[in-house]
Amino acid sequence: MEKSSNSEFKDMSIYWSVFFLKAAGMWLTSDDKEERHRRYVYALSAFALIYGIYVNTIDCYYSWGDLSHCIFLINNTLCILLGIYKITILTTQRMEFRKIVLYAQKNFWHSNYSGYEKEVFVQCQKFCKLWLVTVSFLTQASLAGYAITPIVLNIGKNESDRVLPFNMWLDLPLSLSPYYELVFIFQMLCVYQIGIVYICSDTFLCILNIHVIGQLRILQYKFLKLQSPTKTDLIDCVNEDYLKLKKCIRDHQALIKFCDMLEGVFSLPILGHMVVFSLLMCFDTYEILLADGPLVSQTIFVFHMVGSFLHIILFTSSCQGLIDESTNVSLAAYSSWWMDCPMNKVGIMLRRDILIILLRTRRPCCLTAGGYFPVSLETSTALMSSTMSYFTLMRESSAKEYICPHENITMLVLLGRSTISSISCVQDGPKNGFRYPIRSFQKVTKRKMTGVLKEVNHDVSSARKIEKNKSSSNKDYALSVTTFLLKIVGLWLAKDRKEQRTRDLTLLYTVIAILFGVVVQFRDFYFSWPNFSDCTYTACNILSLVLVLLKLSVIFVQRTKFFGLVKYTYKHFWHTNYDYNEMVLLQECRRISALCIAIIHFCAQGTVISYVLTPIMANIGKNETDRILPFNMWVDLPVAITPYYEILFVLQVLSLCHVVICYICFDSLLCLVNLHVATQFRILQYRFSNLGNTSNVYSGDDNNSWRVLEFVKKCRASFEACVQQHQSQIMYCKMLNSLFTMIVLGHVLVYTILLCLVGYQVFLADAPPTRRLIFVFHITGSLLMLLLFTFSCSGLIEESMNVGTAIYSGPWIDLPMNRIGTSLRKDLIMVIVRSGKPCCLTAAGFFPVSVETFTTVCNLFLY
């Protein structure tokens, strides 16, 4: 944090964000000449904003009664008011804003990085460029729409009938040359100036957020580097690492102070943006779907809505990353070598300082909306919900022709007041496992943790070792069935080149089968339009195929990480090196896993059989030319005639079976792994609560010094092994979340729609009983699968937090107050503090998955 820039630093994202701020008159100046230029540009921005307010207000006054046009003008006015609000806040906070910029230039934006730090910084730059290009493109497209609309509308009109981008309502011949051209250019210059003011502060804030996240990742890397395994002198090693720790703490303090500075300057602009956002999205949706306007004018709102949506998603993602990475500092500190430090003066101080870090990082750094609520990914979901609520109200009002001026004004006032209350439901605190685009921290943990990532090397010898260990888990029904399904899909380990070629061919067949199903269903949807019942039936199939493609694509892209995870699981979870009590816990887990897999497979097979029985039952009593297939083909062939019918029937059934296998195999594996990880936490709890095996070695009332010493040493050795296991399981959960988080998000999103469509097919659609039977099994299986999956995720959360309770239930009260006993007590406190933050799976960082997720999806389904 104390680095200074000795070499010139250039970055496109920073350059362009600074350019936007300069164009708005909000950047820093170094002399009087630049200050005069800044004030001139600031005055132009203020004039453009005031002019925009004037034009839209006057137009709204003269157009009152035309709901569509008034909403168009109100949308423009809200954007302008939001720009005025942001630029006013930044002007009043100009000195604090200057401190933020100078600090970032000195400590973030320089070239004095090396190794891993440079890698993190480069990834920050890449994501900042992506953010800037996205925002700039969508803003330019939206603003260009204001110019293109009148140009297109004026085609074929007389000169006296030409229209401007915005109505002026002046007693002047503005449609005639040269007045028309002058006013047109003037209005578009004002539009672009307003657009720059609208995005400049948000663009710069998001870039600052991303760079702070990068600095927090670099800080985590520094904490993990506190160990020096190559040194032989442990005392010198501790002294050197304590100096490094003190520097890390100073860096951490500086970053916390910087986040507080960001909060002080940008908190109110964020609040204004959150309050106005739902209204803007609502008005955009109305203009696109309901307003009676020209198609070219709707492109303005299409780009504006897409830009606003991506803007809020990327911005809240950066805020979520700030929350997650600030709390991950505790994980990095906890993962250092503190438990191996000697109990001298420096070692005790190092432990105490790390404990203070763990306590401090329980309160994350975050940005808030005026102090009302922390901004995170859940904020975006709350905003989307409020947007849909407002749009529903407007649609109903438009349908009932509520165009009374006073009622419209009252509705807008009520909407504005209700926005904060609708957003404030966002829960405080971080959510674990956010997948921020900068993923390099995983590479650090790969160098550190005890073998978690050493198994990632995907070679033949490791696969053979796993096959040998596999004999110990042959009695695990759930594992055997899940492994068999994954082999059928073609994404599993291979023990030699021949088997790998078989896997590759199987995977190719899987892709062909899925693509065949996709083509058949999309063609059926196209030719069935507009039969609502048939289209709904086909949409259910299409959504299932989309979900299968998502799962298969994610696992295939990350197959190296997936195979490494499987190898680690075989080596550390699915083995027989347990004592009797631990084996009891493992057998209980296997029974629950077998029950879950059996339920999932029963519903899946019932769905497949129903798809096959439907055409068989429908063909009873029909002629050969009238026979139907499980899925309509829509090809210019006599598909109902032998042998075409039998061939296509077999092909469709084979494709169906393979799609269903792909649909359930990854969910079965994830549910199985969740249950086993939760069991590993239970085993860890058992080991923590039985440190030193007090029943056989030592009683707290025993004064035998030899037995006391033996007991303490055994406790210390057991404790160190348990801490290493705890660290490994935490990192395993992070890897599991990074691998499956996008699948979980897609699963939850698609299930919400899929359950609705399936429910329609079961209860409302005019369909034969056999088709209803398909969706009875489908909806039952989907609900049970979601319930079992969320149940396993809740178990993971609970058992990871119960580690602290198990430690408290252990024999720590019997430890003597000698040097080792005192050290062990302090280390136990550190583990208890760390276990207060649970391990969990998240839906791409939007929310942690638990049983509450199941109830939420069911509530949406009932609506």
Automatic annotation (TrEMBL):
Localization per Swiss-Prot or TrEMBL: Cell membrane
Record-level GO BP terms: signal transduction
Transmembrane feature ranges: 41-64, 70-89, 130-156, 265-283, 295-315, 506-524, 536-557, 592-613, 647-677, 739-763, 775-797
InterPro entries listed in its UniProt record: 7tm6_olfct_rcpt
Membrane topology: Multi-pass membrane protein
Chief place of localization: membrane
GO cellular component, one term: plasma membrane
Key words of the record: Cell membrane, Membrane, Olfaction, Receptor, Sensory transduction, Transducer, Transmembrane, Transmembrane helix
Molecular functions (GO terms): odorant binding; olfactory receptor activity
Name listed for the protein in its UniProt record: Uncharacterized protein LOC108631818
Source organism: Ceratina calcarata
Organism lineage: Eukaryota, Metazoa, Ecdysozoa, Arthropoda, Hexapoda
Gene: LOC108631818
